[in-house]
Amino acid sequence: MTSRVEHTDVGAYALGLLEEDDRMAFEAHLLGCAPCRSELSDLSGMASVLSEIGPMEDYGEPSPEPVIDMLQRKRSADRKTRRGTFVIGIAAAVTLVAGGLTVGTQLSVGDVPPIAQEHSHLGPAEQFYADGKPVEGTGVDGVTGGLVIESKAWGTHAALKLAGVKGPLECELVSVGKSGERRVMTGWSVPPAGYGVPGSPDPLYMHGGSATPLKDIDHFEVVTSAGKKLLTINA
Hints:
Blueprint: H1 10-14, H2 20-31, H3 34-51, H4 64-77, H5 83-98, H6 114-119, H7 124-131, E1 135-136, E2 138-139, E3 144-152, E4 155-163, E5 169-177, E6 182-190, E7 204-210, E8 217-224, E9 229-234
Helix pairs in contact: 4-5
């Protein structure tokens, strides 16, 4: 190999892939090259990951030496490969050698399946609501919403979607049994901006549980701390 120094040698140096003459030349180069020193600092974490890979049980996988040798030959054939591409290649090698260790590469949106893209940003209550079959409720004063309900061994689980409500308010989701028994499933505060209204268009998603079995529930209510009923949903 040649001792000619290039900025793309940073990744190879960080992982100890440079031959002795290249290593010495690159260390001399570092003394006067601030960009390379900065890049080396960024890549130091990867070198640390490699150094911490301990002994692994032998499952008959190929030895890592051919992989490292392949990378060395690739570097020799293409010295002008961009640092980012080189690092991704090293990450792939680490994955092979470590039997599952993945070095942080972030998938673009195009790499994620459509269904995962659609729901990847949802919180637990919103996800449960999106995956279920909502029962629409009857609201007052422009309030709208619904519930996705499921029977559980311990009682009843429900996810609520609520919109058209302004604050400040304190609210509760209540299960009302056929016997008239009322159980608070969850509670929350509505900020002044509200939910699902002009200026604050996102609805509120909450979920909660009731010890009352679903078969014994007549309906659900969203009520304020003052006792005003905002939404009624049949079980």
